[in-house]
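Shipment paperwork, digital attachment
Item: protein structure file
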Amino acid sequence: MTKHSAVQDMGDDARLASLGYHPQLNRVLGSFANFSVAFTYLSPMVGIYSLFALGVAAGGPAYVWLTWLPVAGMLLVALVFGELASHYPVAGALYQYSKFSVGPSYGWFVGWFYGMALLITVASVDTGVVGYTTALTHNWFGWNLDPTSHSTILVITVVLLAVQTLLNITGAKVMGRVAQFGVYVEIVGTVGIALILAIDGFHHGLGFLFSSQHAENVGSNALGLDFHGHWLTGAALIAVLAPVYIFYGFESAGDISEETKDAGVKVPASMRRALVWGGAASFILTAALLLAMPSGSDPVGKTVEGGGVPFILGELPSGLQDLLLLMIIFAFFSCGTSVQGAGSRLAFSYARDGALPGSAWMAKVHPRFKTPTNALLAGSVVTMLFVLLVFYSPSKDVKIGFITYPANINALVSLVSFGVSGIYLSFLLTVIGALVARRRGWVPEGRFQLGRWGWTVTIAAAVYLALMLVNVVAPTGLTSPRGYFNLDWVTLLVMVVVAVVGVVVFALRRPEREVRSHLHDDAEPTGAERHATT
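Attachment content:
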């Protein structure tokens, strides 16, 4: 049982007013719509169809069990975020939580890292759909579009981004409906495909899922990765990054708090459900794909060489393959739409506090649709700038001091790693902010509380995030197995560049001065006064 408080007595708009904001967005999203945005951002389909080959190549079939490590770790994070979201049901989520927990400068930088990660994620998701789109147009119309062509990538991405932006502008309810349909697509594309593969006939028994197929040995690793015979302390540390790159996005339920009815209850629940159901769907589909790999000698090598998931599904009837392509395309589309929607609410929340250049323009809400139109348009422009980075792909290794930028890797790919490391960094900073708030005497008063488990869960979440962030960014050279994910020092370098740019913007703009005036909480007058002096 949680203790009763003044916060719990307030309605959605009254609580928003107590935090110093008047309602500007449409509160039209129910529980399922809020969950759908979080779930489609997490998107098991997008993650697995993009990363299955890397996961199984690095760790063998046994990598499927690693799915539960990031699910469990992020569930701890979701509990911390849920408590914060229930107490501060405001658009902008991590930025707002950190602003109130520690102070305006700290909150600004958390939002900066998180916002950049969101914009990069939209670019990576929208460009990721190009290969599936060209495959479908070939099957339907006989077109032979080259998915690696810069012009093809640009045209398809521009069209996709334009449609996403238009739908997001027309209202939160439309965004919610796209996400809700996306949930059904995710169910069919994960559990449904698993059932179809089972009916078609698995080529391996369940014991196969406990086998590494000697992936820890360089001679039998599908990518020639050398883990020196160590699976748990070698191959598993790299293979786990495949599911790590999937299980985030649940926090977007908090970004749309001001458009969700009874947000203090529904947002925390959506975060947890997105993770649990996303984990279950991912595990089922990954296990089915593994069992459906070809029999005989070196099934992992044959699958990876054949292209991963498309190679496995290539045994299905052509009509079913076209249907699957359609579902994959919509999964990418709904994922990008949800991420863009979350990012625009963060930008709106920033701008409303005067924390961005051009804040007055960025904070405007469409009088009819009640959406942050200008924030959406600005975000789409920045996303397109990131998309243009696909045009840079050196034909040979580029030496940058002691760092090697690998050949044939376009610049957007190098940024995509920040879409994960930036998320983990902003998550870690937010959880640390929650620890600081507790140390200062903050008492959560929302309708979702961790009670006596608050300290334990928050510390455990911080430990998980810190360890996994190191695992994601630790530079070990291109010849290391880790180089397949972090590209030598490039992931860490991108993080440093984003931080430096943030410091420059912060120094020129001095946004903390404006943000300081928005640390208002009538329900916590003492806490608000304390933070205002931070």
